[in-house]
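pinned: reference chain
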Amino acid sequence: MSTIGQWPYFQRIDRPIFAKKNKKFFIAGSPGSSGVTDPEYDSHLTKDNVDFLRSKGIDGVYSWNNYAIKYNELQLFKPDIDYDPGDISIDKLKNGLRYEMFEPFYKFFLAHKKTLLTFAKADDWRKPIATAVLQLGLTKGKNPPESQWKVMGIKESDRDLLRKWKKKVIADAAGDDDGDEEKEED
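pinned: its structure tokens
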């Protein structure tokens, strides 16, 4: 397991559209979260963990983790890093991701320059779908094309969710009067 700054699997996800929009996207497992099944789980978030995020300029942390960060740990983010628990619970994640998770995550990403998405194990199936959600939103549904979703590691049940998200993004873009067409080769 690769751990940087005590964040398992910490890595930056680069896509041309992120740079074009002056955004940076990172993923990581929560500190101490590997293989956790305890409902009383404490993420063991420390000042050093948060100082590492500050050193990277991260201004927003969004969670697709089963376990929320405890109140005393949340205080470590203040005043310069926003945290959103993403309305996730073990019950909601039992059957995988839900379509309703995409829009709040996308809006959070848009509101921050450097966003970290954290979940229990960052090398799992959530990384490619999170990346696709952001790309589809920023390109108004154009990229990544469906032909790449399987190659990206997105399973069929999650591709159905992405199709629904893509349809919403395209419909929203059709109602957008700014005429800004995003094109990306990625």
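why pinned: The longest strand covers residues 24-29. The chain has eight helices and seven strands.
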